[in-house]
Design brief:
about 325 residues; five-stranded antiparallel beta sheet; four-stranded antiparallel beta sheet; mainly beta; Lipocalin; 2 domains
Length: about 325
């Protein structure tokens, strides 16, 4: 009779949790949770081959070989490449009344492809609502950087603040998760031909987050004390309701876990199986090939567990010795 295979082991070595499983040695450094994004932010400077582009509210500064040039691209507010005659007349009127400004208000997102920096620029009404988002290309390897208008996506992104990061590169296209005609969905643009498309995922949501691997987007819609969580597959272009939760959504833990707060108590849910875990306050998580690693406190743990991700069954545990 073959010997029963031993279960995984879990130890702490030199500030790392070490999982031993099926001949594997998996080391996970103990670290504090860092938010996946610094955005929205007040200001941003991007550098390419020593050339700098700085964004702040109401404009950008391009370093042209040591000579800074400021621009807010006011011509785009009334170009016939983006607007019809009636829309241009309305914008002229609103600029005159102070409801709009000609220059862009904020940076909704950016993405590098090769030596080109693509920008998603946003114009806002005085009320703060966006009325235009345009995609502009900056050839950063040119002797003199000249912004080139590509066009606009269908609808608007979920960007906020002076600087945000809502533009991505997905399956060969510039892409963003946006809202259009009361729906939320995936908007795409071919950077070569500037052709666009829009794939709706259902009624508009209050906010969105992209998974760490980029293959899924999560939409959140709150009503009557509950938050509905909708998962959108960005490859199959399908969406489904995966959870309805109380409390505050904190983050998506890769690949398919949702952390919320019920009052001050943390709750972790598997969005595939519906299993629920109520970890200690200050717990940190890391998905491994052997299972979900959970430890607390974050930086100086005194206990840790390796859990089966499907039902949070304990596979191995470690406790600090006195």
């Amino acid at each position: 009779m073959a010997a029963a295979q031993a279960g995984p082991g879990l130890t702490m070595e030199n500030g790392r949790l070490v999982v031993s499983s099926a001949g594997q040695r998996i080391e996970v450094p103990v670290r504090r949770f860092e938010p996946p994004s610094i955005y929205p932010a007040d200001r941003l400077t991007l550098t390419f081959a020593g050339r700098k582009v700085t964004f702040e509210r109401g404009g950008m500064i391009i370093d042209q070989n040591g000579r800074p040039a400021r621009s807010s691209l006011p011509d785009l507010a009334m170009t016939t490449k983006l607007h019809g005659n009636a829309a241009i007349a309305e914008t002229r009127r609103k600029i005159a009344s102070g409801e709009r400004q000609a220059g862009f208000t904020a940076l909704s997102g950016y993405e590098y492809l090769g030596t080109t920096l693509y920008l998603l620029l946003r114009w806002e009404e005085r009320s703060g609502e966006p009325w235009l988002e345009a995609v502009v290309a900056l050839p950063m390897d040119s002797e003199r950087v000249q912004p080139r208008l590509l066009g606009r996506f269908p609808g608007f992104s979920y960007a906020q603040g002076n600087v945000d990061d809502r533009l991505d590169f997905h399956s060969g296209f510039l892409a963003l998760i946006g809202r259009r005609d009361g729906q939320w969905g995936l908007a795409r643009m071919n950077p070569s031909t500037t052709e666009t498309s829009y794939s709706p995922f259902g009624p508009a949501v209050d906010g969105v987050r992209i998974s760490e691997g980029g293959g899924h987007a999560y939409g959140f819609r709150s009503a009557n004390g509950l938050t509905s969580v909708i998962e959108a597959d960005l490859i199959r272009l399908q969406s489904r309701l995966v959870a309805e939760v109380e409390g505050t959504v904190r983050r998506i833990v890769w690949p398919f876990f949702l952390e919320t707060r019920e009052g001050t108590a943390p709750v972790l849910r598997n969005l595939r199986t519906g299993a629920v875990l109520r970890p200690r306050w200050g717990s940190q998580y890391e998905w491994t090939s052997a299972g979900l690693l959970v430890w607390s406190p974050e930086l100086e743990p005194d206990r840790a567990q390796l859990l089966d991700g499907s039902d949070f069954r304990t596979l191995a545990s470690w406790t600090k010795t006195p």
